[in-house]
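Protein record
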Amino acid sequence: MMRSRLRIAFGLFICVALSVGMDVARNAGAQTSSDKAPKMKVYISVDMEGVAGTVTIDQLGPNGFEYGRFRKFMTDETLAAIKAAKEAGAGEIVVSDSHGNGENLLIEDFPADVRIVRSWPRHGGMMAGLDTSFSAALFVGYHASTTNPKGVRAHTFSSAHYARVALNGVAVTEGEYNAAYAGAKGVPVIFVSGDDIATEEIKSRLGDIETVVTKKALGFHSAETLTPAASCDKIYAGAKAAFARLHDFKPYVIKTPVTLEITFKNYTPAELLSYLRSVQRVDSHTIRFVGKDMDEVDDFEEFVGNYGADLTP
């Protein structure tokens, strides 16, 4: 009888041990599978004209007396978007410094695992480094287009040289242009911050994306603005809301081949560029280029915007 009971007890012990072992193996397998799952990649393109408080050249360039402070404000607004992205599960984040000389963001303030694109020229322009592996793109500090009669520091790529930039016959903002570049790679834009005119303009083209108004435009060089701290709080909340409904957003895709038109403020660039067989001169100030896709169109625009015969290393 004793031996029989021992055999039964031993058999139960073996069954329990095997069951526990199988559970451990299953959990380990699930964890391994989870660890191998691709982590969300997020791209953040950052400009400066749409940052809270920015109104004139005094904030926008190295010679401006407020530039040093506003580099910090631009950095802090970007960090607010990064915080939201990380909390949403982003495993990789690339930030594009897309204003002026491309050397504005205080890179020492960023988390160690964030990569930052700096300076020019570069393939992809304000979206350099973006590829099909990214899940979402966010625009921080963006502004209205050069054809918009309102908006703080409204321009498209070059406030000094361009009077209009159009894709497939429609004048675009930098935001819409960059969204089309991202859309061609299957990446949706989910969030934009900037003044009220800029956010209204880009939503009219991209649809119901999340936006944050950092200031109300009163003129080209004037605004009623949030404080930097309040703007950061709103950007964090807005980006967080965007990630919460990530699956609602679709890439912004335009028809190919893509027709790019650039209207210059001076006639000479249009005249000289028309010497190229791939360029058509539409009027005294406007040229037209047709590219097979947004990559080709953007490379052309980057060349036009950056090339000068007097370029030095």
Notes: The first strand starts at residue 40 and ends at 46. The chain has two domains: 39-161+174-248, 258-306.
